[in-house]
Amino acid sequence: MDVQDKVEINVLYFAAASTATGLSQETISVPLNLPLSRLGNILVARHPKATDLSKILDGSQWSVDEEMVDEPETVELKGGEEVAIICPVSGG
């Protein structure tokens, strides 16, 4: 894969995802046209010490540029997007 086949996105981590990674946001390079549904695998590989991250991501929703995504497999990342991990929140 050539360098030009990579694009940068900004990932926002909230709640449990932020706790697991120790980050509130980071900018990462991903392959051009990466399906959003594959981003979780990249994040888990980037943060091997975040032992529960895979489980957290499986139970979370995604938003791209402040729009909630119902079907992550249908969204391709082109570069420049802000992707947020929206974890379930319990409360009372």
TrEMBL record:
Subcellular location: Cytoplasm
Gene Ontology biological process: Mo-molybdopterin cofactor biosynthetic process
Source species, domain of life: Eukaryota
GO molecular function, one term: molybdopterin synthase activity
This protein's pathway: Cofactor biosynthesis; molybdopterin biosynthesis
Subunit structure comment from the entry: Heterotetramer; composed of 2 small (MOCS2A) and 2 large (MOCS2B) subunits.
The name this protein goes by in its record: Molybdopterin synthase sulfur carrier subunit
Organism of origin: Roridomyces roridus
